[in-house]
Amino acid sequence: MSGPQLAISNEFMEALARLPKSQRKKVQEFAKKFRADPKSSAINYEKIHNMDDDRVRTVRIDQKYRAVVLHPDQGNTYVLVWVDNHDEAMDWARNRTFEVHPETQSLQILNVEQVQKSLAEAGSREIGSEKLFSHDDETLLSFGVPPVLIPAVRHLESKEQLSQLQTVLPEESYESLVWLAEGESVEEVRRAVGMPISLRDEVPAGTDRGESSSEDQAIAKGQSGRRFHRVSSDDELDRVLAAPLERWRVFLHPHQRQLTERSFAGPALVLGGAGTGKTIVAMHRARQLALKLQNNHKVLFTTFTKNLAENVRYVLKTLCGDEFNQIDVQHIHDHAMSWLRPSGQFSVGSDDDLALAWDMVAVDNPTNFETDVLREEWFYSHAIKGVTSREEYFRLSRIGRTPLLSRRDRAAVWKSFELFEESLRLAGKTHWIGIVSKAAEYARKVPSPIYRHVIVDEGQDFTASDWRFIRSLVRPSQDDVFIVADPRQRIYNEPTLLADGGIAIDDRIHRLQINYRTTEQIRNWATDRSGGGDMSDLCDSSWSEIATHSLFSGPDPELIESKDLESESVAIAQLIESLKTDFPLEEIAVVVRANWQLKKLKAALTRQQVEHSVLGQNTSDTQGVRLATMHRVKGLEFRCVIVAGLAADVFPTKYRGREDDERAKKQHVITEKNLLYVASSRARDRLYVSTVAGFAKSTFFKTTKT
Predict the structure, then answer these.
(1) CA 471, CA 451: separation in Å to the nearest integer?
(2) Where is the UvrD-like helicase ATP-binding domain (predicted)?
């Protein structure tokens, strides 16, 4: 039999976060001693009066605070479940039951008062003809509904009544009931919530039935991982308790955990909307892969934006131990440049530099097309489709694109591409497509690649040239490339297929369907105004048909209508003043479309004496409401978001392409809608949307169901 083990509950982390920082340090010191020897005579266990469950005790932190411990009759797992002042800790424990569910075999903690209240309310309802659930008791039990709450669930008549049970039911059962109420099949719900088809007799590998208590086995179950975590070392204990609010670092949804731990035969793709935990899954997977590495091999974690790369690097340091040394976190273009620096200096041309090079092509244009057409064709063929040679370009499918090109036209167009590249070279400049392409050449020649695994976040914004570079960094093998993406957050480039970049996904596509960030009301509002569900999911298939849902409920987003920008700034200042009682200023973000709006907003809030700071690299050290553009807030979240400055001259921005290119015009509108989706889905609790001069009535702003 192995020695005593320490587990920590989700409730314990919640309670710890409420304590003063000085007290948290004492709890952390106690937890280490307790983990070392929970049976030590120095541990002051105290029984709880008027409580029949003898497994539950309190232990002394100091003269004022006590922790509540689930103390097994047999077995070796001790669970810290709460921490509070002495009397409050006692009261909390007396009002809880700790039971292993008879079907799911997961350990559940129930609030007795809430259960009794729910049963009383259910019993007081008149029995109508319409019930929310027609499933039998066995089915409801199989989804983790506690037996005692079956009558309350049976009496539900609406989704609104179900939402009132959210704080009463265990997470897995509430989530399952939400999906069942949406009309999903039992089998589909089992898959979505990560429950096996057969739950009976499910015991983790290596578990000794003769020596382990039912609590020992239950804590190791998949659904228990949502709220219990076994701590394997003091270092891990320090990392867990140091950030009690960041519970996602410890407690994962079973489906999320499966994606972090399972092995794939090749590249794998995980799709999910905003707030579904894509980056969390990617970071946990990077850590799991790093823990298994040997010798000098490494994991590369790459993103499309520098801001996210910096944030991921910081979070991974807090999530990992020594294995962090085997994880490189780098923005994709920075990583490509690192391959080229040893061979000389490369100067990436600005937009003006590239425009000047195309002007040089126009001097001796070998085609009958304007340079706008040639520039768009060059980007499409080289970036979006990953073309690297004249032969590939001749074979390239251009279905749906204008103008139509004959073989002779293509030959002339390719000549214009060569003139463009030569003009840049003579100016001592290059472009990012050239950087990643050259870096891919170097990487493919390395006899023994350092990277065994590549993790990609923001995959929807990568181009085929980026994917070819990623493919060159790691040899095709098991678990080589792992990608997370959200097509609705594609705001930089038009859709790119992974196959065009040499990434073969096959059937290794998985979806995250639960939104953990925002309320259902905010999620629904943001999704309805995104660029639509007809976008490619990187594999030329429709992903929007998969249902998504938030488990949280809250107020509907509120619309603010102003006649002009000046009156809008006054309204926003007044709104922020009213929100101060509910939200710290640092948890409120005001988001606009363009930098010129940001400058005007900053000046207006200064006049209104509203404390604020423009979101940047050092924002964590500043105070006040956060101001940012829609591009800048990507990957971030705030308790309250105000999307401001929505006006006819702002959304959509002016289309600068060719008027005869209907495909490009449609893609422009989709991208602008996706920006609105990105901005509004940053909100966790409250969303305000401010429009100017009647924009709320525009066709762009109105709901477009997808």
Answers:
(1) 11
(2) 251-528
Per DSSP, 314 falls in state: H
Interval 626-650 mean pLDDT? 92
| Rounded Cα–Cα distance for residues 143 and 158 (Å) | 19
On the question of a cis peptide bond just before residue 147, with omega within 30 degrees of 0, the verdict is no
209's CB contacts (< 8 A; 6+ apart) are 203, 217
Given the structure tokens 């991982």, which residue do they identify? 225
Alpha-carbon gap, residue 706 to 535, rounded angstroms: 11
**Superfamily of chain region 254-342+439-512:** P-loop containing nucleotide triphosphate hydrolases (3.40.50.300)
Prior bond of 38 cis (ω within 30°): no
DSSP state of 653: P
Give 496-555 pLDDT, tens digit per residue.
Answer: 999 999 999 988 999 998 888 899 999 999 998 887 655 567 887 666 556 688 888 899
Residue 233 burial (C-beta neighbours within 10 Å; 0-12, 13-18, 19+): exposed
Spell out the residues 6+ positions from residue 97 whose beta carbon is closer than 8 angstroms to its own. 53, 109, 110, 112
Question: Are 471 and 501 a contacting pair, CB within 8 Å?
Answer: yes
Contact indicator for 337, 346 with CB cutoff of 8 Å? yes
558-562 and 588-592 beta bridge pairing: unpaired
Q: What is the residue whose two structure tokens read 């039971």?
A: 99
pLDDT band at 201 (very low <50, low <70, confident <90, very high): very low
Would the annotation count 276 as a binding residue? Answer: yes
Output b/e per residue, 382-405; b: 16+ Cβ within 10 A. Answer: bbbbbbbeeeebeebeeeebeeeb
Q: What residue ranges do the domains of the chain occupy? A: 5-100+203-249, 107-193, 254-342+439-512, 351-429, 549-697
Model pLDDT for residues 63-120, shown as the tens digit of each residue? 999 999 998 777 788 999 999 999 999 999 999 999 999 988 889 999 999 999 999 9
Q: Is 321 annotated as a binding residue?
A: no
Containing 416, the helix (H) or strand (E) segment is: helix 407-426
Domains 254-342+439-512 and 549-697 share a fold: yes
**Is 699 labelled a binding residue?**
no
Would you say 194 is a known binding-site residue?
no
Q: What is the model's pTM? A: 0.89
Residue 544 phi/psi, 5-degree rounding, is -70, -15
pLDDT digits (tens, 9 = 90+) for 430-448: 999 999 999 999 999 999 9
Measure the CA–CA gap between 21 and 25, rounded to whole angstroms: 7
DSSP state of 444: H
Distances (CA, A) of 496 to 381, 384, 464, 552: 11, 5, 6, 33
Is residue 11 a contact partner of residue 110, using CB atoms and an 8 Å limit? no
What CA–CA distance (Å, rounded) separates 642 from 81? Answer: 37
Structural domain 5-100+203-249, CATH architecture = 2-Layer Sandwich (3.30)
Cα(146)–Cα(227) distance, integer angstroms: 16
